[in-house]
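Colleagues,

Please find the record for the two-part complex below.
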Amino acid sequence: MNEAGYDYKIVRSFTFSALFWLIIGLVVGLWIAVEMFYPALNLTPWLSFGRLRVVHTNGLGLGFGLAGIFATSYYILQRLTRTPLPFPRLAKAHLYLFNITIALGAVSLFAGMNTTKEYAELEWPLDICVVVFWVMFAINVFATLIKRREEQMYISLWYIIAMTVTIAVLYIVNNLEIPVTLFKSYSIYAGANDANVQWWYGHNIVGFIFSVPVLAMFYYFLPIATGLPIYSHRLSIVSFWALIFAYLWTGAHHLMLTPLPEWIQTVAIAFSIFLIAPSWGSVLNGYYTLQGNWEQVRSNYLVKFFIVGITFYGLQTIQGPLQGLRTLNAFFHFTDWVVGHVHMGTMGWVTMIISASFYAMIPRITGVQLYSIKLANIHFWLILLGQLVWTITMWIAGIQQGAMWKATNPDGSLMYNFLDTVTSLYPYYRIRFAAGVVYFAGIVIFAWNILMTFRQQPESGEVEGETIVETES
Amino acid sequence: MVITTKPVLFALVSAAVILIGTIITVFIPLLMPSTQPLSPYVKPYTAVELEGRDIYMREGCNNCHTQTVRPLRTEVLRYGEYSKGEEFAYDHPFLWGSRRTGPDLNRIGGKYPDSWHYRHMQSPQGMFEKSNMPPYGWLANNRLDTLNSWKKTSILKYGYSKSDVHRQIISYLSYVTNATYPSRESRNAVTPPELQGELTEMDAIVAYMQKLGRDVKKLEAKN
């Protein structure tokens, strides 16, 4: 134990969990990327695209995403409250239950136990496990906050509170289902209502896993990386409340031009456009924090991750609302454009911020320098290159497919049959796979770098690290 | 600001803030019958069709196939009439999908004969050389498990008695095994001999394909 008695073991364990699920999820991602142009790879039922795609999304969203959030949240909570975790054994139970749930989740999805509601595909017994480990996490969050020794709660803690509350509401409401057997259930909602509940969930689970807690990391680690305070506290307050208020209205932009009542769609469009403001509030707060110190983007590897990461968040939060507009949605929806959009957020913003947070955090809990800043830089350039080629390729593929679906002959008949619109995308799918390999190489270097940083220290003891490590270029 | 020193209050206010949009755009529509309208023309799935739908879900077909035709000119040209809310009244869960790697299936019912589906499921590449759809011929090697069929339809409140469900299964079995079944040759070509006299998972998913978008045609003819 370190002097202050902070529980860093749990941070370390969730860091390892995150890296593990990240690698697994990406390997599955590469596999299904090949299946898209080489269907012979659908070797067995459990390796078929329909089953693997959900292993990919759940493995990365719930496995890597949540583990990264838990690792950084347990760290940030203790540091910002100057209070050790009140229930370290509960946190340990949380760790075990989390990893067991994700592992069983992967196995059950391979086996085809799939509720089909996107990012909520796990069957009901595993849903219960998710709720239980979420409650375990919430108990530690609120107990730490109540016992805290720091009067004011810093911005990052607001985001962690909002996530803790909102994910619970979203997950429970969307997963209400009637069991048929242990492995099969039906959603309690029918048709259009089920769609509405699902995309309220689907949009906000992305918001409250891939935006809100990642912003908590950003607001906490950016000042640590730069040595500069956040530009405007007031801007962060306004952005926070506007963001969590507006987010929940926007799910139906995933259901444009469907049988869902039109007013719900239109309200969703309006709030989606509004969401640009609070999203960019955080982007600008990040940029202005660097005012007069922009050379750090060149000289400080952590700042590079954070600023390029928040830039992708900014691009993402403009692109998203625009895709929600009816006319653009009519063209882009159901195409690979949307796949590109999602991956700019996950491969750009989310992974860059979590990576940099780990790079900033791990040396502080081990008391030794990062194993290699050079490798961290290589990691940065590889995932940036991989992600850009990946997403731009998918945008072009999406535009092409959207245009081919719409194309008509002078006599008004369709110009292309459906199969033509699929096979014409195979060259893009090959490029996408290659970009994915580059990205994956960057991630392997990242994992290696973190593991070697841990290994540098012969003892497993954690030390009080606030003053030991200063960030360097 | 005082709220940033009170974590429990902060959590309660956050919950209230996120619930406003939730209540207005999600919970209130749940209570409005117009969100999910009903039509006497649209009937629930039979037990066999429902089993087929469950196989569709198990295999994650929804990851590549949508089931909503949008009211757009070229979309209606390609797939058929745009989707109506009434069609989905018995869908738990909905299967509208989010990505069209393969074509939309909401109007697939009746578009091709059963034989087309048997052959296509068996080998998509045999029919369309460059298709990237995984082959599903192995579904014909699996006997259809109807052990929970009645429980399923009763959970979904389809209003069938146990004997209704039994009759639906037997009548579909006798339909596909009858010597006059028009797709008999294709069915026998993909089904192993020992299962040709029984219902397979393949039979069920084909039955489900043929149900999609059929009932609503009566509704549309009426309008």
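Chain A has a mean pLDDT of 95.

Comments are welcome before we finalize the supplementary table.
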